[in-house]
Design a protein that fits this description.
- There is one protein chain.
- With about 90 residues, this protein is an all-alpha fold.
- Helix content is about 90%, strand content about 0%.
- The chain is built from three helices and no strands.
- Helix 1 runs antiparallel to helix 2.
- The chain is elongated and about 75 Å long.
- About 0% of the residues are buried.
- This is Envelope stress response protein PspG.
- It comes from Salinivibrio kushneri.
- It holds the Pfam family Phageshock_PspG.
């Protein structure tokens, strides 16, 4: 909602200063791009703690599954490497 108010205010200020319609459209597109990028960065920062928690849980689950098999991690990695080299 703030982004829309910003763009409307931006257009009104440009219109009052005597900028042409084409200049106003280009300025609106540039303003929209900047606000969209700022919104994406804000969303990323807002979700970053949850993304880190999800990554930690996945790492812990994979580690737990490896330890249940009774094989050390080195052997598992060597088996994966052998499968990769055969291709």
């Amino acid at each position: 909602m703030i982004e829309i108010l910003f763009l409307i205010g931006f257009a009104v200020v440009l219109f009052m200063t005597g900028v042409s319609i084409m200049g106003m459209v280009l300025a609106m597109l540039a303003g929209f791009a900047v606000m969209m990028l700022a919104g994406m960065i804000g969303t990323l920062l807002k979700l970053l703690p949850w993304l880190l928690v999800i990554a930690l849980v996945v790492w812990l689950v994979k580690r737990q599954r490896r330890s249940r098999k009774g094989e050390p991690e080195v052997i598992i990695n060597e088996k994966r490497w052998e499968r990769f080299r055969r291709r």
